[in-house]
Every structure is written in C-alpha cells, then in structure tokens.
Amino acid sequence: MANRGPSYGLSREVQEKIEQKYDADLENKLVDWIILQCAEDIEHPPPGRAHFQQWLMDGTVLCKLINSLYPPGQEPIAKISESKMAFKQMEQISQFLKAAEIYGVRTTDIFQTVDLWEGKDMAAVQRTLMALGSVAVTKDDGCYRGEPSWFHRKAQQNRRGFSEEQLRQGQNVIGLQMGSNKGASQAGMTGYGMPRQIILLSLVLASAALLLRIRVAYCCHLLFV
Question: What SUPFAM superfamilies does the record tag this protein with (predicted)?
Fold first, then answer.
C-alpha cells in the first residue's frame, strides 16, 4: 500500500465507512475473472483488501485486462510497463480508466486513480471492475472469457427505424384516437343555457304585464274619483 499518514477524527470515520463497503466475496470472483480473462501466467494474490490493492496498484494487470477485451491488434494500450516508479504506475491506472470509459463503462462507475494507488476506496475499484465485466458480457463479441452469469447483462436499447410513409400513417392513427369531427354539424343542437334563458324571459314578461295591469287600474281609479 502507498505510504500515507494515519487518518484521525472525522476523516478516520469516513475511511472506515468506505472500507466497510468492500466485498471480500466479490474480490475472489473478480480475481478469478481477471486471471481467466487475461489468459496469462498471472500470479493469484493472497486474499484480503490490502493484497488486492497491491496486486492492481501498478496498473499492469488492469492494462492487460482491458486489452484482453479487444481482438488482437486492436488493443487500446500499446505498451504496458512494469515500472516501480510511482508516476508511471499512476499513469497506467489512468490509461486503464480512460480505456474502460471508451469501452462503455459509465463515468459514474469509474474510480479515481488515488482510490486504487493509495487504497482510499477499494470498493470503488470493485465497482468499476464489475461494471467493466457487465459491459463485456453485454457486448457478447467473443472477447469475454468466463461464465456469463458472473456479471449482470445490461439492458440494450431497441431502436426502430420508420419510413416517412409509416410516420404519416402513425400521425393519422393518433388523430383518430383523439377524436374526429368529420361530418359533424350544429343542426338540432340546443345552445348551452337556453332553457334557463327562456325561463328568465318568461318571468320578465309576466312582471311587465303585472305592472301594466296595476297602472291601468290606477288610471281608472283617478277617472272616477
């Protein structure tokens, strides 16, 4: 593991929570897959998070892994170095991460270089390798080695192409589903609120007639007084 000072206080609590996310069983499956996938004489590391980190931290195994997922002659990393120099090891980790993203691993599933080289978040390293395996299984291009059940197959988009004529027909269908006024007219239809208007008109006429009768009676009364 890279040399770094001990964590204290809140920093230590955060680091402990991160380390609790590390899956020892998943570590065994990933080691078995990487050795089988690389198809090289790669030494199996002792079990444990620290040994898993040491096994991967120089970037050599990771670069061999991503190269093995491509056909011969199309490997994304042309030269793999087993240098002991820190900057070279971190450079190779960065090359792997870039190649993994180009291969199809989502950016949100990519760990940071220091997560591996300094052992800050080995659970994130496991997550990236799981995502890489899932993409490899989903591609199904003959480069993946291992049991298909080891990784989750990602759902793929089912894009369909339609001609302009099919699109026009689809628009007509949608229009009919929404309703049509073809052949419709207002003949025989009564306007909204018409009965109420008739009742009000009748009341007005009746009131006018009553007032007229009162006026006539009053005039007759004046004539005979």
Answer: Calponin-homology domain, CH-domain
Residue 37 CB contacts under 8 Å (≥ 6 apart), including other chains: 65, 68, 69, 144, 145, 146
Cα gap 86→88, rounded to integer Å: 5
Closest CA to 48 of 20, 28, 18: 28
The CATH homologous superfamily to which domain 9-139 belongs is: Calponin-like domain (1.10.418.10)
pLDDT digits (tens, 9 = 90+) for 156-189: 655 556 566 666 676 665 454 555 555 555 555 5
Q: pTM of whole model > 0.85?
A: no
Picking from 131, 108, 111, the residue whose alpha carbon sits closest to that of residue 59 is: 111
Query: Could you state, in order of their start, the residue ranges of all structural domains in the chain?
Result: 9-139
Unique residue bearing structure tokens 């007005």: 204
| Spatial separation of the C-alpha atoms in residues 157 and 20, rounded to whole Å | 35
Q: Is 154 left (phi over 0), alpha (psi -120 to 50) or beta?
A: beta
Q: Among residues 49, 110, 43, 47, which one has the least CA distance to residue 82?
A: 43
Tokens 């609120």, residue located: 193
User: What HEC string does 90-138 produce?
Assistant: HHHHHHHHHHHHHHCCCHHHCCCHHHHHCCCCHHHHHHHHHHHHHHHHH
